[in-house]
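During the reporting period the student researcher (J.K.) took over the structure-prediction task from the postdoctoral fellow and processed the backlog of single-chain submissions. One of the processed entries is reproduced below for the supervisory committee.
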Amino acid sequence: MNSKRFRWSADLPDYLNDVPEIVRAYAPYIVLSPEADEELNLTVRQERDCFLVGISVGKKIVREEKLAIAYEEGLLYKKLTKRFCKNALHDWCKEITGVELPYGSLTGVRPTKLYYELMQNNGNPEEVLRDTFFVSPDRARLIAEVVANQSGYYDTDPHSADIFVNIPFCATRCRYCSFISSELSQVRKKIPAYIAAVREELSAILKKIKEENLFVRAVYVGGGTPTSLEADELKSILEPVAQARPGVEFTVEAGRPDSFSREKLEMLASMGVTRISINPQTFKARTLCELGRAHTPEQVYLAFSLSREFGFDINMDLIAGLPGEDFEDFSDSLKKTLSLRPENITIHTLSIKRGAVFRNDGMEKNVQGIVKKCVDFARAELKSAGYLPYYMYRQKNMADNLENVGYCLPGKQCLYNIDYMEETTTVLSAGAGAMSKYVHKDENRIERLPNAKGLDDYLAKKGV
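J.K. obtained the following structure tokens:
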């Protein structure tokens, strides 16, 4: 593929810093590189009654756009002018490549949040997505379906909260993973200190919940692979939450089937856990080996069967676009997942993430259309099997510029997934790399408080 290469140049106000993501979304058709010969420049300026955008390549102006708007302090002005800049860049990129992106000029993680915003304007959100943001009709319909299936689960209570606990340890590191997680064998001596630090942090969180009279909707324990810990170690982390808030939705990621045991599942059930994840990602043994996942397809079936004995709702993940896999491989994995009939199935589109081994090895995102065929097939098959799309999010460098979508059986929506993706609920988080988010609904703002990312930095800050 002959890519068009440019050196990005723009002197933009801070609120427009993410505008070049439009150009990056067109990779590999357009590549931004500091070594490129040609300079791509974006200029903006405000005149008395209009906002002007100019795009130039080298010294040649290739596009000029004008938005009739007067300057005004506040978020509305910034929102409208940012959208105008992105649309101008999108139109130019589409013109020079002949490529139409499925999400048009949308670059954010949460397209459903925009849909909710558009709903408040008493218009037709689906139509606005198509006509104003150039979202393809099938993706606009998907967004609408996700929002519809959140009805009754979408949180509007200003006094609600979720608890998140991060356990950033895995038996091995997957090649697609970019999370700040450690291989357990390398940090085994630090586990007792980590448990003590997280328990202390959870005690403070539970105290805050009691003092502020908050209602806990969901508890989510993620990672990493929490069940890579021994049963007594994981129990020590879960105990404070289990004792303080029984009866809520309580999810523990047990994503790697090789981390399962009856002892661990019995412990999770005794702690009041209601939902677990078993993530095959694929049922092709060769792919699992190449990904660095130390389990077999047979272990997925064994873990699922054992988990069913304890009555957990089960989440399962598949990834479309894994290296070396074709449509038949993916459809086979989907068929096998559907045969188990878990309560939730999330279809991920492979994203080449910064920090992942795939990225370091020089892999680029796939834009050949095969992944779209897989994802669209999954959408149709899941619908036919009675599953509903109920949450979604997007990431950079996704194959075919697509999305991740969570599907569920009716009435089995995971509250935490909806709360986190729609950012409607305060999330109080514990552990290395965890992010607490305080949702101030009356002020329409979110306050983010991150913990130290690295294990050693986290332990040092906690004084253990």
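The committee noted the following: The first strand starts at residue 4 and ends at 10.
J.K. will present the remaining backlog at the next meeting.
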